[in-house]
Amino acid sequence: MNVDATCDAFHSLCLAFLYSNLAEVFELKRRVVEMPNGTHFSRRHFLKLSGTAGATALIAACGPGGAPEAESSAGESSDSTPQTATQSVPELLGADMPGSPNSPRGWTTVLPDLPEGLPPAPGQEPIEISTTRRVDAQTKFGEGDSMENNPWSRMIEKLFGVKLTVAWTWSSGDEATTKYNLAMASGDMPDYLETVPSNIFVKMVEANLLEDITDAYTMYASQRWQDTWAEYGELPWIFTTVDGRKYGLPRVEDLAHNDNILWYRQDWFDALSLDVPQTLEELHDTAVAIVEADIGKGAPGTTIGLLANKSFSATWFGSIDPIWAPHGVVPNHWTEVGGELVFDAVREEMQEPLALLNQWYQDGIFREDFFTINTSDSIQDVAASQCGIHYTPSWGAWLDTVRNDPETVWAFADNPAGPGGVRARHTENNFRSSPFCFRKGMEHVDQIFTITNFMHELTEDYDRRFHGWESHNYEWQEDGSVAATGISWHPWAIGPIGTRGSGMIDPRHVANLIDYQLEEWGKIPAEERDAYQTLSLEDPTGVSILGKQSRLFILETAEQGKITEYQSLPTPTMIERGSDLSKLVEENVLGMIIGEKPLSAFDEFVEQWTNLGGDLVTQEVNEWWAARS
């Protein structure tokens, strides 16, 4: 792999991301978005990432400028009426055709053109592809549907003649590791593997269990897809490339996907006359006040001051990384200190936030057993109105809370400042580790690319108006409006687009979509908008609007992001001893937070980590660091 090109691309990404908050770099828009706490900010021109955006795109290309967005063909496409031998595609799909063209305030979804020879002839036997899939409490279906039988899977089978089966599923990282290890040991590998953990990925490549897709990507990925990733140089491939060959497709997340900000119940704050906390000390006092008032909807004494779960470093809901990061550490990060990379969990700077979190736990701010609960399950405390403050990305205004408690009023704010007034949070490379991989010898690699090309056009060409399926992802109300059901189509889909991780091709996709809706749909007089446009711009629950506003806010405050400096595949010692090292870190960090271990045990923990192999990992990481320098 070209290490220098990779690092240059990554450096460009970080710089462009950091510069996104500088007013002089980007043309300011006139629109002002009102924030829930009464403050205002202007949306910057950097969200216009196509056409005229050119050199001021939020993500810098490795060259002088990014490639322009492909021109939309939705208005010209004839694919809403292409014919099979006997019927049009909408007729073929029937109830599985997305969109609501027959409703008075409905809209038509325009499907991309299908490749020659599709859809398959009536009676043609489908190609069967076995998959692995991530599921959790947020993987939901309409009545009678399942992972193998839902509107998305039925659409794919009817249009492409591909039947997707599920060999097995997993919910947690540990479960994924266990099941992938078992698949390797047994030799029973499904055809298409969703988000293979990095350490397993390396082992699979070494065992010659994965298909080399270097040539397949060039041959089958659409030009639009290839042009998009080419803007980022080697960055998309740093977690999928071994000896210059590609063995998987990266999982791509949007720009604001994993940056956590403060979400709070405005209705609770109003009832208790609480102000939005500006510092961690004020956050502590606010959380204590909520617990003491026992304002939650659960049994007496069950109100939670601040959400947390066993993902103690950083996670996608109820994270505590904005408490760690202002102290200069995030436990699972590698940070440059004196020219070398050091693992944050064993740095001296860990001790202050450990003591703070221990005190907060003693003060009853966290759920007593938070350290036993995974991220997905911890959401239920928010949905049930038992917790009123949490650090979460842009989806923190949880719809189920509003459904269960109609009095809910969500709001968000900048993260409270830590020592020295520092506001900081964990952030990540948007081209993630854990790629989508193909079993060695998989006969239908091209089919996955064909489906992905189709989904790329359908989801990232906004004139096509794809918003899911009626009665599944949205439903009509008696007054002619539509409301979200709380069921997402993303978990039904195979990657790299969709899945439980809501993957995409272009990391700018969500920012572009928000900009499109505010710019293009915002020009339409309110009385002339269709029902989905109204839902997006005037959502009565407030959840959709808050999601858009918070994404813009996260991008505005991107300089707060702290990213791990180590951006490569696991080292040999990480693979050999990583599980034991991770277990040691978890036992000690969580143990010190909940008081099972004294804070004075920190030095002993560091020594144990070093002796268990941490010294070798550090050596290997710094060999990589020296090479890229």
> CA-to-CA gap between the ends?
15 Å
**Strand order within the widest beta sheet:** 5-15-8
> What is the CATH architecture term of the largest domain?
3-Layer(aba) Sandwich
Number of strands: 18
* Annotated CATH topology of the largest domain: D-Maltodextrin-Binding Protein, domain 2
Largest β-sheet summary: 3 strands, antiparallel
Structural class assignment: alpha+beta
* Silhouette: globular
Overall pLDDT metric: 89
In words, what does this structure look like?
It is a single chain. The chain is an alpha+beta fold. It folds into 2 domains: 117-255 and 430-510 and 535-556, Periplasmic binding protein-like II (D-Maltodextrin-Binding Protein, domain 2, 3-Layer(aba) Sandwich), CATH 3.40.190.10; 261-427 and 571-628, Periplasmic binding protein-like II (D-Maltodextrin-Binding Protein, domain 2, 3-Layer(aba) Sandwich), CATH 3.40.190.10. The chain has helices spanning 3-19, 89-93, 151-160, 173-186, 198-206, 214-220, 223-230, 266-271, 280-293, 321-324, 351-362, 375-383, 399-404, 445-460, 509-519, 531-538, 543-556, 572-594, 602-628; strands at residues 28-34, 40-44, 127-134, 162-170, 192-193, 241-242, 245-246, 249-252, 261-265, 334-337, 340-343, 389-392, 410-413, 425-426, 431-438, 474-476, 482-484, 561-562. Strands 5-15-8 form a 3-stranded antiparallel β-sheet, with no helix packed on it. It has a 3-stranded antiparallel β-sheet with strand order 12-9-13. Strands 1-2 form a two-stranded antiparallel ribbon.
